[in-house]
Design a protein that fits this description.
Blueprint (H helix, E strand, L loop, with lengths): L1 H15 L3 E8 L17 H14 L6 E4 L3 H14 L3 E3 L7 H7 L4 E6 L4 H9 L14 E8 L2 E8 L2
Parallel strand pairs: 1-4, 2-3, 2-4
Antiparallel strand pairs: 1-5, 5-6
Length: 162
């Protein structure tokens, strides 16, 4: 029994000494497609409902930081989450991300990143340091990518949240 307790204590201390970061990445909710020339559309009604669904998904995760691109559709997707958990939204530019710095800046944090069909898979690939995920189909607003990094161990999953 004493050996089991010592083993448990060692394992617990080992886990608590790890530096772990968790990243949750989503594409913006459904956008208004009535004007194909509009490069910065708002969410449509379906998208507004999905934004509220994302609130339910993230409400108990105790996020430390929220990042979004500076577009109406991404900001409208994440604002309900931001409001619910009382966290500010940091704006980022997908073309200017330095993944090593981003990881360093977010060590031991739980982070939500909101982007686009052509940027979120690349962001995940940058975090996991391999080209695994492809661009999201334009009709898919349901992917949730989860990346967990503990010391040098990286795990990642793709969930479909309808």
């Amino acid at each position: 029994m004493k050996k089991l307790f010592i083993l448990f204590l060692f394992f617990t201390l080992e886990l608590s000494s790890q530096e772990c970061s968790e990243f949750f990445l989503i594409r913006h909710a459904e956008k208004d497609r009535t004007d194909p020339d509009n490069k910065n559309p708002n969410l449509n009604e379906e998208g507004k409902l999905r934004a509220l669904k994302w609130v339910e998904v993230f409400k108990n995760l105790e996020l430390d930081k929220i990042y979004s691109t500076n577009y109406y559709r991404t900001l409208e997707t994440v604002k309900p989450i931001s409001k619910k958990i009382k966290k500010e939204i940091s704006i980022y530019s997908p073309s200017k991300i330095n993944y090593d710095k981003f990881l360093s800046d977010n060590t031991n944090n739980k982070v939500l990143v909101v982007g686009h069909s052509n940027t979120i898979p690349g962001f995940v690939n940058g975090l996991i340091k391999q080209k695994l995920y492809n661009q999201i189909d334009d009709r898919n607003n349901s992917n949730l990518y989860i990346v967990k990094i503990c010391n040098n161990s990286i795990s990642h999953n793709l969930l479909y949240i309808e």
